[in-house]
Specification:
With 232 residues, the protein is of the alpha+beta class. It is 20% helix and 35% strand. The longest helix has 15 residues, at 92-106. It is elongated and about 60 Å long.
Amino acid sequence: MENSLDLNEDTAIILHQEKWHPGVIGIVASRLVEKYYRPTIMLTTVDGIAKGSARSISNFNIYEALKKCEDLLIHFGGHQAAAGLAVEVDKIDEFRLKFNQIVKESMSEDDLLPEIHIDSKLKFSEISPKFLKIIDQFAPFGPGNMRPVFLSEDVEIVNTPRIVGMNHIIMSLKQNGCDKVFDSIGFNMADYMETIRSNSSFDLVYTIDKTVRDGRTFPQFKLKDIKAKENN
């Protein structure tokens, strides 16, 4: 799927495969936005019509962009960050060209640089069962209610980081002055391996999720960014 992307040519990602399951294309679109930080539309074929889900990035109203393409669409609906749409299969290429042109005219290169909104600094010592229960009270999490994002400074690696799957990092972490150790996973973050290996400590941006081992539930960090300490 991703082999067909040409991000040098296309500012937006629009992919179509007639056998993709309608129930997962929205999730996949969100994952592609996270990975490439481009407005993304995933389309599958249902009863001869291409139907899909659109996901956007900050400062780009994907609903208004679709509205400018409504002459090519059967129908669409949604809001600034996400939308659904339907288009004739034989008009997908024309729609792709027009949508990409709208994105190019609306956004600069700086707009395509991802920004991470950090909700709060957090010390590992503050992560307790009570703290995790408070986070759970904000669930369910999703596009309109994202998990809180934390920044922890002076983080160190406990074990040897490993690359798993296609491009993911897993490692255990601790923070200077705290004996608590937390597991973490960084999806599509293998490019950070050199930063991790060549620095004794770094700053970490992440969300807190859960993982289950041996029937027990433990907190797990989902990494979003890693930055080497300037004084290393």
